[in-house]
Amino acid sequence: MTTASTLGRIVRGSGPGLLLAHGATGSIDGNYGPILDGLAERYKVVGPDYPGSGRTPRAEEPLQLDRLADELVAAAVEEGLDTFAIAGYSLGTPVALRAASRHPERVTALVLTAGFARPNARLRLLSEDWLRHLRSGDEEALARWAVLNGAGAPFVDRMTADELAATVAGARDSVPPGAVEQVELVGSVDVREDLGRVRVPTLVISTAVDSMVTPYHHREVADGIPGAEFAELPSGHLPFVEAPAEWLGLIRKFLDAHVESQAGTVTSR
């Protein structure tokens, strides 16, 4: 490993290694915060933020999938993990798959949630619309668009007017500086060739009422990976909000069954 990682990160827990890959316009805290304590109870968790999110400054150039994957792996190695599982959420799925393809000696298992291998026509249209909202300067319209497309319909349908207003406000306030570069990457990745190269235990978690990255994509990922397991979660694209306990349970059950024990100690960052 010669690449040094410039990514800010959170490091928690001890035990077998677990590297986290978050979604576009997200962060480790934003996408994994509600389940981070539960993961850290059993694993040494390394969670790097992408450029322009969380602890990492915005990039000065477009994001490249290979470099991002290499930097995530480098962050885990720099924190003392020789081998590790990777949990990828949304855009974190192609990032995790590329990391496993480029660094097979490091990766012991994959858990891929709400993910995709490439943008089909619908997801490309959605990502272009997302970029249009991000560049418009209309923060309220962007936030309303994000809630309508991100959260599952059953979750939004149950909201009171006050809960909806709070959710829209939260979406408005959580857009990171690097959102445009991250959504541009959504529209350009293609890791279909990486799927067949996976040789480690893999769980694909389908967010079953997801209208952003639809179950069509989840099944395409699972079908392309030899021996991949498939599970459904009753959630839209935001499992960390809509079904965090169920999501944590699926991840831990799979990793407990497939990841060999490794000793590890950690300091918080």
Automatic annotation (TrEMBL):
One Pfam family it belongs to: Abhydrolase_1
InterPro entries per the UniProt record, alphabetical: AB_hydrolase_1, AB_hydrolase_fold, AB_hydrolase_sf
Domain AB hydrolase-1 span(s) in chain numbering: 18-244
Keywords per UniProt: Hydrolase
Top-level lineage group: Bacteria
Molecular function in Gene Ontology: hydrolase activity
Protein name: Alpha/beta hydrolase
Lineage, broadest ranks: Bacteria, Bacillati, Actinomycetota, Actinomycetes, Kitasatosporales
